[in-house]
Write a structure and sequence with these properties.
Distance between the termini: 41 Å
Order of helices and strands: HEHEHEHEEHEHEHEHEHEHHHHHHH
Number of domains: 2
Number of strands: 10
Strand content: 15-25%
CATH superfamily of the largest domain: Periplasmic binding protein-like II
Shape: globular
Radius of gyration: 21 Å
Structural class: alpha/beta
Length: about 325
């Protein structure tokens, strides 16, 4: 008898002793789409590893395109996606209803790194960036939006004053290593991997510090899921919040879980990545998406020209599940 049959027989026997037959409750399986497999989403991976989702089994799919993870949810192929709440705003502007239900990454989790020999000598960013080729994430993704926001802030034209090579987030190292770009916009763990592989030095521009609290990566679901399956959403959010708290309360255990998620990553690289994320307060501590964090994210995509409408916080963000997560 295999383990599954044994457990099923044992459960049935227990019910018979109690004098009634109780059907076994099947675990619900949900799919979460992520734009890249990143240490930034460690709270989710912790919740999966620790069983914080109770009787819900979470599966991951990585979709490295600007809007692919959003479309997976809109089409019903996935339960949730990880991405900035601006994706909910884009959908809202087109008549679709998505909601951010819990925070994951509460800082603009990108860094600008210069190819060896191309490092800036000061902080006159408009002068330094002008004429450069920059490897950035795909159009529509949050890293891409931040780059376009900064360029506009520095009064640089994204088409005339710089050259943007839009590629998968994981490919920026290869683009800079191949001397196709002088600057790489990177997230962790790719920042550390670029340093270790001698592609670039430590980042010269730290966006988590530059922009402060920022609704960078929230976990988002259809409004229909909230309306029809509130208990599923509640269970999911509660698991993420518990994972977020463990990140800061028990970094050693969080590190052990991260090792299993990134088994091919050298341990020194992983340690440096986690230390940087903790130091820069990249991860959300409690799952809350604050109004100021959305105000910054909204300003980024509106200034970058990606969002034309002034979408309000309450139209795309629902913190009621986070507020009840401790109960």
């Amino acid at each position: 008898m295999n383990r599954r049959k044994f457990l099923g027989t044992a459960a049935a026997a227990g019910a018979a002793v109690a004098g009634r037959i109780v059907p076994a409750r099947a675990a619900r399986e949900v799919l979460v789409a992520e734009p890249v497999h990143s240490t930034g989403y460690l709270a989710l991976y912790i919740a999966m590893a620790k069983g914080y989702f109770e009787d819900v089994t979470v599966k991951l799919v990585t979709i490295e395109t600007g809007g692919g993870h959003t479309n997976a949810v809109l089409s019903g192929q996935a339960f949730a996606f990880i991405g900035g709440p601006e994706h909910n705003a884009y959908a809202k502007a087109k008549g679709a209803e998505l909601r951010a239900v819990v925070n994951c990454v509460n800082r603009g989790n990108i860094y600008f790194c210069a190819a060896k020999g191309q490092e800036p000598t000061g902080t006159d960013w408009p002068s330094y960036f002008k004429g450069k080729t920059i490897a950035i994430g795909p159009f529509g993704g949050t890293p891409n939006s931040i780059t376009r926001y900064l360029l506009k802030k520095w009064k640089l034209d994204a088409k005339k004053d710089v050259t943007l090579i839009e590629t998968a987030n994981s490919a920026t190292i290869a683009v800079v290593r191949g001397k196709q770009a002088q600057i790489g916009e990177a997230t962790e763990p790719f920042v550390t991997q670029g340093v270790r592989n001698n592609v670039w030095n430590e980042p010269f521009l730290n966006i988590p510090k530059e922009l402060g609290p920022y609704a960078y990566s929230t976990i988002n679901v259809r409004l229909e899921s909230i309306q029809k399956e509130p208990e599923l959403v509640r269970t999911f959010v509660r698991g993420i919040v518990k994972g977020s708290k463990l990140l800061y309360a028990n970094p050693d255990e969080a590190s052990e879980i991260a090792k299993k998620q990134f088994p091919t990553m050298p341990i020194d690289d992983l340690r440096s990545t986690l230390e940087r994320s903790s130091k820069d307060e990249t991860w959300s501590r409690d799952g809350v998406v604050s109004r100021p964090a959305w105000a910054t994210a909204s300003a980024v995509v509106r200034e970058a020209g990606l969002l034309k409408s002034d979408i309000k916080y309450d139209e795309i963000i629902d913190m009621s599940f986070v507020e009840g997560a401790g109960q």
